[in-house]
Amino acid sequence: MGYLEEMLLRNGLIYHAPDGSRSYIEGSILSNSLVVRNSAGFVTHRVERASNGVDLVVRSSSTGAVVMRIAA
């Protein structure tokens, strides 16, 4: 998960705050996707396969809008 975590860190979707709080990536077995949780444990984004079946898209969990595309 190094490359994916690096891309999400670079784009500000996950963070490591100086006070020790951080957001993190978690696998979701039921929906077959990854989720990004904030320091309180709430899901902020979902990482899913794109429609082409190769790339990944990051969707906002509140709006469902694609906020980032990661090319494979």
Strand content bin: 35-45%
Q: Spans of 5+ residues with little confidence (pLDDT < 50)?
A: none
N-C termini distance:
13 Å
Shape by Cα distribution: globular
Structural class: mainly beta
The ordered H/E elements are: HEEEEE
| Quaternary status | single chain
How many alpha or pi helices?
A: 1
Main sheet attributes: strand count, strand direction, barrel closure? 5 strands, antiparallel
| Global mean pLDDT | 83
Rg for CA atoms: 12 Å
Helical percentage: 10-25%
Number of strands: 5
Tell me the strand order in the biggest sheet: 1-2-3-4-5
SSE topology sketch:
Blueprint: H1 2-10, E1 24-28, E2 33-37, E3 43-49, E4 56-60, E5 66-70
Antiparallel strand pairs: 1-2, 2-3, 3-4, 4-5
Short description:
With 72 residues, the protein is mainly β.
What does the model show?
This protein is mainly β. It has one helix and five strands, in the order αβββββ. The chain has one helix at residues 2-10; strands at residues 24-28, 33-37, 43-49, 56-60, 66-70. Strands 1-2-3-4-5 form a five-stranded antiparallel beta sheet, with helices on one face. Strand 4 (56-60) and strand 5 (66-70) form a beta hairpin. The chain is globular, with a radius of gyration of 12 Å. It starts with a helix and ends with a strand.
Key attributes of the depicted protein:
72 residues, 5-stranded antiparallel sheet, 12% helix, globular, mainly beta, single chain
